Amino acid sequence: MAAAFPADEGYDRGEGSNREEATLITAIVLIHAATDTIPETAQAIADIDGVSEVYSCAGDVDLIAIVRVGAHEELADLIPARIGKVPGVLDTDTHIAFRSYSSADTQSAFDIGIDGD
């Protein structure tokens, strides 16, 4: 049984929304890659439909990919069958986003009404 989230809690299930992002599922994919293939691996991942961004980074992982799809089933296909099979990918760790907090959105909220003062 799916949990119901009240609208006053700030949950946006995408119903009646004009924002495409409201209906997309965002996943953050942490990728361990063969060190000598990181640039080629990153570009190959970036070329996959559904992958919006790929970052090379310092730390415990080599690459971070941001994936946006319309359904969980697409994630189930895209990550193991496409990203996981890119030459140079050694391992993936996927995290599904619940909610987005953007400084640009926050600033826009503070800007509302300022022109009318």
TrEMBL record:
Keywords of the record: DNA-binding
Gene3D superfamilies the UniProt entry points to: 3.30.70.920
Domain Transcription regulator AsnC/Lrp ligand binding, first and last residues per copy: 31-99
UniProt-listed InterPro entries: Dimeric_a/b-barrel, Tscrpt_reg_AsnC/Lrp_C
GO terms for MF: DNA binding
DNA-binding in keyword set: yes
Domain of life: Bacteria
Pfam family, one: AsnC_trans_reg
Signal peptide: none
Keyword DNA-binding in record: yes
Protein name: DNA-binding Lrp family transcriptional regulator
Organism: Saccharomonospora amisosensis
